Amino acid sequence: MSRHILLVDDEPQLLFSVREYLGRVGYDVTAVEGGTEALAAMMASPPDLIISDIMMEGMDGFEFQKRVQALTDAGIPFIFLTAKGDLRDRVNGLRGGADDYIVKPFEPEELEARVASLLSRVKRTREEGQRELESLRARIVAEISTQVRAPIVDLAAHLKLLLSERFGDDAETQARFLRRAVADADILDALVQNLSHIAAETIDEMPLHLEAIRVAPVVRSAAACAARQAASRGIDLLVACGGLLSARIDAGALGKALSGLLETAVALSPPGSAVRIAAVRAHDGGVEFTITDGGCDLSEWEADPSEPTDASAALDVARRVVRAHGGEFATRLQDRRHTTVIWVPGRVAKHIGRRS
Q1: Is 149 exposed, middle or buried (0-12, 13-18, 19+ CB in 10 A)?
Q2: How high is the pLDDT of residue 6?
Q3: Same domain, 320 and 240
Q4: What is the tens place of the pLDDT at every residue in 27-82?
Q5: What is the dihedral of CA 81, 85, 88, 90, to 10 degrees?
Q6: Do 191 and 253 belong together in one domain?
Q7: DSSP characters for 222-271?
């Protein structure tokens, strides 16, 4: 699959020539003539790399680069391609977070080489991070597997002895082996609890793939997962989300959390009721997601943790995903309708469509 490059410059001839050259050597290039248009293009289709001029009308390259950094958490490699060749300009660009700085006039072969080198370096860094994460998972699974094996063997042996009825009427011996079996089961339970805590901590610390994207497709995807279940129970599924609403999120992780909560809301709602999912821009610039069921007791959602249910599992997953996003999670009950509120930070929409 070809790598996607966003090219930003207010010189139409340069846009055409660079796009044509990079296209010939295998890149998919989106070319725009200003910072505002570039932000919109980035939201519509996040690129693998951005190449931008500095001296542009409206939003200059430095301002554009700052907004890209804020929206993507420095997740997209950035190259300045500009006629501003002063040392101060180069230093400002690199200190601002740019990965490279190329001064016009330039040779297309040099640009291609620097693009390839930067993309290769980013790929290696991400692969190393993924390998470290996979290694951590493997170590955790191996350690838990080793600890679980011994009590499983002992528990199976004790139960087989009891089932074989070798003790006749010797109640004391039977009780002794039953106590041993219960002790083994307690050990297993403790190990499973430890594994759950480790998994939760690993998920919380796991780096998400955050990118600036439209929120509506994530909300619609979550609703689609619950649509068949809602239809089979005669429940209306209502979706409300503005098409331009955007945020910097991990669409896969947050989508799973939303679909789990929505499916649970549908399952717990009475037939003939309505379940609603909505997303709006919060007053502080973040995005707020709400899921409201059709009317059920709050206790049905927040079950005893020692007796996990589908509802409590959905809540647990959602809480961990929200924490990983640096967001907030809350629940409330009003008029027997239970609402889950998720807030995640993000100020993407403030910059889209606005002229500097």
Answers
A1: exposed
A2: 94
A3: yes
A4: 999 999 988 888 888 877 788 899 999 888 888 888 888 888 776 766 788 999 88
A5: 30
A6: no
A7: HHHHHHHHHHHTT-EEEEEE-TT-EEEE-HHHHHHHHHHHHHHHHHHSPT
Instruction: Say whether both 258 and 327 belong to one domain.
Output: yes
Q: Fill in the DSSP letter of residue 208.
A: P
Q: How many CA atoms lie within 13 A of 176 on its CB side?
A: 5
pLDDT digits (tens, 9 = 90+) for 99-145: 888 888 888 999 999 999 999 888 888 778 777 767 766 776 666 66
User: How many domains are there within the chain?
Assistant: 3
Between the CA of residue 318 and those of 83, 92, 114, 176, 256, what are the distances in Å?
48, 41, 41, 43, 8
Does 354 score more than 50 pLDDT?
A: no
Inter-residue contact 20 to 26 (CB < 8 Å)? no
Nearest to 85, CA basis, from 63, 62, 107, 54 = 54
The boundaries of the domain holding residue 184 are 131-205
Same domain? For 179 and 296 the reply is no
Pairing of strands 211-214, 337-344: unpaired
In a domain, 312, yes or no: yes
Comparison of pLDDT for 247 and 116, the residue scoring more: 116
Report d(CA 144, CA 188) in Å as an integer.
10
Q: Are residues 223 and 320 in the same domain?
A: yes
